[in-house]
Write a structure and sequence with these properties.
two-stranded antiparallel sheet, alpha+beta, globular, five-stranded mixed β-sheet, 5 helices, Trna Endonuclease, Chain: A, domain 1
């Protein structure tokens, strides 16, 4: 019988690998990874990234590894050079976020808190993220007295002018959706909505992975 913690870790790794593959990364998994400080390597744009997958039921970016053997329970804090980015699976919203190891120990919020304390917001970590500013309830138009959100007053820091249909139609075949999103300062989901609104067909699944393989040959 598998250990419950290992089951959660496997879920996080599987979710992350699927998500990163859709974002255009080539995933490399070690044959033996039981005691490595990372779970897999993601490759894209001639760069390799060591990824540590975590299941965060409480939204905390765990700063240590824990394992069990015949001698009992052991734990060890991660070091800066152990890996590059976390792949944190947030089960309450079924999403994976990618804070760098520098965010070790922090909390990533998925619901606007009933507090004026600044917080890290999950949408700011949809891509491999080395830096992110903390948000405040004011950016979301929240009235802490009533807990209501005014959609008209919410600040959308990602709002940009959409490219023309002709420009976007050309871009989707030149680079992955995630890269287009980074270029425009929006999420990959926003780019997908643009394509849907324009009626633009995107490259088929596996297109960018195949191109990555061709570059390596």
């Amino acid at each position: 019988m598998l250990h419950h913690t290992k089951n959660k870790g496997d879920i996080a790794a599987t979710k992350a690998i699927a998500d990163l593959t859709l974002k255009g990364y080539l995933i490399l998994t070690p044959v033996v990874c039981e005691h490595l400080p990372f779970d897999f390597v993601a490759y894209k744009d001639d760069k390799f990234y060591k990824i540590q997958a975590k299941y965060a039921g409480d939204n905390r970016v765990v700063n240590r590894t824990i394992w069990v053997d015949k001698n009992g329970i052991h734990q060890k804090k991660y070091k800066v050079k152990d890996f590059d980015f976390y792949a944190v699976y947030l089960p309450d919203i079924d999403q994976v976020v990618y804070p760098s190891i520098n965010f070790s120990g922090c909390y990533i919020t998925t619901q606007i808190p009933n507090s004026a304390t600044p917080f890290y917001w999950w949408e700011d970590f949809r891509e491999l993220t080395e830096e992110a500013a903390k948000r405040t309830y004011k950016e979301f138009g929240v009235d802490l007295t009533t807990r209501k959100v005014d959609p008209e007053s919410r600040i959308n820091t990602r709002k940009v002018e959409r490219p023309s249909k002709e420009e976007l139609e050309k871009l989707v075949w030149e680079k992955p959706t995630a890269q287009i999103g980074r270029d425009f300062g929006v999420s990959d989901k926003a780019v997908e909505k643009w394509c849907k609104a324009y009626g633009i067909d995107k490259p088929p699944r596996g297109y960018w992975v195949k191109k990555a393989y061709q570059k390596l040959e």
